[in-house]
Amino acid sequence: MDREEFEEIAQRSRDEAAAFAVHVNICTSSGCVASGCEHVKKQAEAEVQSRGLQHTCRINGVGCQGLCGSGPIVSVQPDNVLYHKVKPDDVADILDHVGQASVPHLELRQDSPFFERQQRVVLANAGKIDPEEIETAMAAGAYGALLKVTTEMMPPEVCKVITDSGLRGRGGAGYPTGLKWGTVAKATNSTKFVVCNGDEGDPGAFMDRSIMESDPHRVLEGMAIAGYAVGASEGFVYVRAEYALAIKRLKRAIHQAEKRGLLGKNIFGSTFSFSIELRLGAGAFVCGEETALMASIEGRRGNPRPRPPFPSESGLWGHPTLINNVETFANVAPIITNGSAWFANIGTETSKGTKVFALSGKVNRVGLIEVPMGISLREIVMEIGGGIPNGNQFKAVQTGGPSGGCIPADYLDTPVDYESLRKLGSIMGSGGMVVMDDTSSMVSVAHYFMAFNMDESCGKCIPCRVGTIQMVELLKRFTAQRATHDDLVLLEELCDMVSQTSLCGLGQSAPNPVISTLRYFRDEYLRCIAPVTESA
User: Fold this and answer.
1) What's the Cα-to-Cα distance from 146 to each of 87, 211, 251, 398, rounded to whole Å?
2) Of 38, 99, 106, 254, which has the fewest Cβ atoms less than 10 A away?
């Protein structure tokens, strides 16, 4: 495919969409599927057909529109009206009000803080395009950045743009993306690989899942651009097998991109060739760690290994390998299209761009949000999230999944960036954000996450394998109100031992929920210590 053919396809898709006066966009991501969106979509198609509106009203299945706890979500354009909790019986009312007024009891106010306080970069096309039709993605700009780099830029230029943008890895550690790309690009090995880490396993996290379900082509395009920049010709997307819908859409997206010549041999008539394959994980949380992930791709048990050597030097089958997570790759095309300065002007001095969060827990508006770095926790929880339900009080927010920490109300005005969260004993992580109210026991929260880490330990190193079990047993004593002061001392010693001596990131960060709750909610642990009774 050359530039002219590419632009012709994209324009034809835009023209076809413009031929319809009305577009009814029905969310078909996992949250809305669970709420019955497929029945709503079938009813809408039947209603349009029975009214003879099939040439003027188009029913579209689209990706996530944000408020996952209020599905099924339906938007009507050009009215710019958003409806929530739509049932098949509501479809006739919605179509009756097209172009006139909204259906009051179904309408979601789009001027609410949930929508207004967000800034969509990664999710710019989510809820607008059909994730199963490549033409709608191309009409929205997909693969335009890949066209630009393969026809107008040299690989070092691409690496420089990513470096200058200040993009940092969205998988948790926040390592500078451009620096990682540059390291792999400089490797002299003729065989290199690009790997997309989609093994999202944190409790309460669904960011990468929604991105893959809503706009899979943005991820594939980011991987292809990375392949061009570092000199790789083959990529792998590693996705947990539980993400059935994401897998289905990724498979379809890869097939469609190959059919259009956007993946495969001599992309856009250049000398650059790049193919992508899917690899499915079996639900092992440790495979989110990059060396365990690579072992799994190679067909071996997903155990981590010591570093160095790092994957950029010796990764898949001993070759230099670039590994980034889903959201990191999804930022690449917008940066290439809009320039590094545009991206660097979003966020803070050290944390550039936006971040996608899965906001869940004791909060009024549960869903997927994308906000500029530097926004405060208070703005996310109280404004975007709508505060705490049932008249309860905010107690803590847990960021970073089971590797993160619990942040109390005193620090609600903390800006959300890598350094600020780390100072509080938490991390950005991949983007899970779980809100707790004053009915939550922080000792029970620590026990829950510690038990999760214990179950997910691969067992390779003793500190993690044995240490997490001992910590869980101690936490059980606290939750049963049978702990002693010696138990508290031992718990703190184990936190230090496991974090300092474990082999990989899972074990090193496993004690974080305990450490942070001990730091900010120590009184709750002390209340769980059984009183000492004097013997007769």
Assistant:
1) 40, 19, 20, 37
2) 99
Q: Which CATH architecture has domain 3-110?
A: 3-Layer(aba) Sandwich (3.40)
For the beta sheet containing 354-361, the strands, ordered from the edge strand earlier in sequence to the opposite edge, are: 367-372, 354-361, 432-437, 394-399, 405-408
Q: Which of 478, 502, 481 is nearest to 491 (CA)?
A: 478
Give just the sign of the alpha carbon dihedral 436, 438, 444, 446: positive
Class of 442-527 in CATH: mainly alpha
- In angstroms, the CA 449 to CA 429 distance is 14
pLDDT in tens, 424-449: 999 988 888 999 999 999 999 999 99
**77-89 average pLDDT score:** 95
Count other C-beta atoms under 10 Å from residue 379's C-beta. Answer: 18
Structure tokens given for 38: 């497929």
- Give the DSSP H/E element, type plus range, for residue 59: strand 57-62
Tell which residue, 357, 297, 293, 332, has the closest CA to residue 178: 332
Q: In angstroms, how far is CA 217 from the centroid of its own chain?
A: 15
Give pLDDT tens digits for 160-200.
999 999 999 998 778 999 999 999 999 998 899 999 999 99
Q: How long is the chain? A: 536
What letter does residue 205 receive in the DSSP assignment?
-
Give CA–CA dist 93/109, Å, rounded: 18
Q: Which of 69, 341, 323, 365 is CA-nearest to residue 175?
A: 323
Q: Which helix (H) or strand (E) holds 76?
A: strand 74-77
What is the architecture, at CATH level 2, of domain 141-344?
A: 3-Layer(aba) Sandwich (3.40)
The H-or-E segment that residue 297 falls in is helix 290-297
Contacts of 335 (CB under 8 A, 6+ apart): 161, 162, 165, 167, 342, 343
Which pair of tokens denotes residue 346?
């979003």
Strand boundaries in 305-366, DSSP class E? 321-325, 354-361
Q: Residue 372: enclosing H or E segment and its boundaries?
A: strand 367-372
Alpha helices in 397-480, H assignment, sequence order: 418-423, 442-456, 462-479
For residue 2, is pLDDT > 50?
yes
How far is residue 257's CA from residue 263's CA, in Å, rounded to a whole number? 6
N-term to C-term CA, the chain: 90
Computed over every residue of the chain, the mean pLDDT equals 95
Q: Which fold has domain 354-437?
A: Ubiquitin-like (UB roll) (3.10.20)
